[in-house]
Design goal:
The chain is α+β, with helices and mostly antiparallel strands. The protein has 14 helices and 24 strands.
Length: 442
């Protein structure tokens, strides 16, 4: 299978064309049901939200997905109870050939190739706001973003940690009619379960110990703008129906209060999990998932778009050292790595490379007077890795302190100024024990 271009030779393709496929139930309950894929990914299970809904009670709500890719048809089990089987073998993730039979519960499905291609638009640009990427995976996202941003539709962003979901959420906000309003971030993973209701919905004076005054929650703070609920997969189960009610009624009630406050806000949520799997595990409510899953964007990991590594590395290097090209040997080294930490890890690697290559950069983050270069600067009894990490931490600590001073401790402004993911900045603040004010005015 290959990506087929409809553009002239050497021109950038305007659409991604993948071999189409169909799924047919050949044995079991509902035999005869079939589906021809219209999008690159389809999901199968008993829940109504699936592309192909099965009638077999031994099948999970979200059992498996199958995607057309440039490498073939990729089958993924979604954490099903009874497993997904091909040729007598249980498959968690793998490619299947046309003609393969997939057994789930008491049902058998046939995968077949069809003559009609699946076509998805590709953006002619290799960026959208601060987002960068020349791979077809990213340009497919960029092509859809202008239409998504112009609407008020709820968006669910899925992808591994470090892929840039926070940057993507901010880019959608900045390109939307709500750009002049606040962009408020609430990280479910960074808030104690006992405080998350107050953080979301606010509280009234005396609602609990320490509630010394009325306080608006994130939904109210985002009035006229966008609320970005990060790591929503970490939201406690007992809070999920309350969030669902807020989304459906477009109103909230402060903790300890009686009146509901009407909302004027767009919702973007993000998670590093596949929420369909969480629904199967009863760790996430199905009704809340369907309410969030109006528009779902999967942000691919960097290892699946290796062609973007050089583009991103050049960009990060140019931000740090505008007048110096990135060394070829550094680029080659970066290309060879798998980047489990994704774009965030790549950026940190470029920063370390610049730091260790140029002592002047190290001095930028140092609050002490610059020492003269010489062998006395280095403790050669300390292992290289330890010395290297210590130098990196020193620069990073000084950089963050200088950044907060320049932005009057405003975390939102600081993250925008240096194009850093806000959750990563908060991680650095915790790491070095530095305090900054939370988002003021988005």
């Amino acid at each position: 299978m290959s990506v087929k271009s409809t553009s002239p030779l050497h021109a950038r393709p305007k659409e991604l064309r993948l071999d189409g496929f169909s799924l047919s139930v050949v044995e079991g309950p509902g035999a005869g049901a079939s589906l021809r894929a219209r999008m690159s990914e389809v999901s199968v299970g008993t829940a109504e939200g699936n592309d192909l809904v099965l009638l077999d009670p031994t099948v999970s709500r979200h059992h498996f997905s199958i995607s057309a890719t440039s490498d073939g048809y990729l089958l993924k089990d979604l954490g099903s109870s009874n497993g997904t089987w091909v040729g007598g073998m249980r498959v968690l993730s793998g490619y299947v050939e046309p003609g393969a039979r997939i057994r789930v519960g008491r049902t058998t499905l046939l995968v077949d190739q069809v003559n009609e291609d699946i076509c998805e638009a590709l953006s002619p640009e290799d960026g959208f706001g601060p987002l960068l990427g020349q791979s077809s995976a990213m340009r497919r996202i960029f092509a859809a973003l202008p239409r998504i941003a112009s609407s008020d539709t709820t968006v669910l962003l899925e992808g591994e940690t470090g892929t840039g979901k926070g940057v993507l959420a901010a880019a959608i906000h900045e390109a939307s009619p709500r750009a002049s309003g606040p962009f408020v971030v609430l990280d479910c993973a960074a808030i104690a379960p006992t405080l998350i209701e107050s953080e979301l919905f606010g509280h009234v004076k005396g609602a609990f110990t320490g509630a010394q005054a009325d306080r608006a929650g994130a939904f109210e703070q985002a009035k006229g703008g966008t609320i970005f609920i990060d790591e929503i997969g970490e939201l406690p189960l007992d809070m999920q129906p309350k969030l669902l009610r807020a989304l459906e009624e477009r109103s909230v009630k402060r903790v300890g209060g009686n009146q509901r406050v009407k909302l004027d806000v767009r919702v973007i949520a993000a998670t590093n999990r596949d929420l369909r799997t969480e629904v199967n595990r009863n760790a996430f409510r199905a009704d809340l998932y369907y309410r969030l899953n109006v528009v779902r964007i999967h942000v691919p990991p960097l290892r699946e778009r290796t062609g973007d590594v050089e583009r991103l590395a050049r960009h990060f290097h140019a931000e740090l050292v505008p007048d110096k090209p990135i060394p070829d040997d550094l680029l080659e080294s970066l290309r060879r790595q798998s980047w489990p930490g994704n774009v965030r890890e790549l950026r940190a690697a470029v920063e370390r490379a610049v730091l260790l290559d140029d002592p002047a950069i190290l001095a930028l983050g140092s609050e002490a007077p610059e020492a003269a270069e010489g062998d006395d600067e280095y403790d050669l009894d300390v292992p290289f890795r330890v010395s290297k990490q210590k130098a990196s931490d020193q620069w990073e600590r000084g950089y963050v302190r200088a950044l907060l001073r320049a932005t009057s401790d405003n975390i939102s402004e600081a993250s925008r100024r240096v194009k850093m993911d806000r959750s990563h900045l908060r991680t650095l603040l915790r790491k070095y024990g530095i305090r900054g004010d939370e988002e003021r005015g988005g």
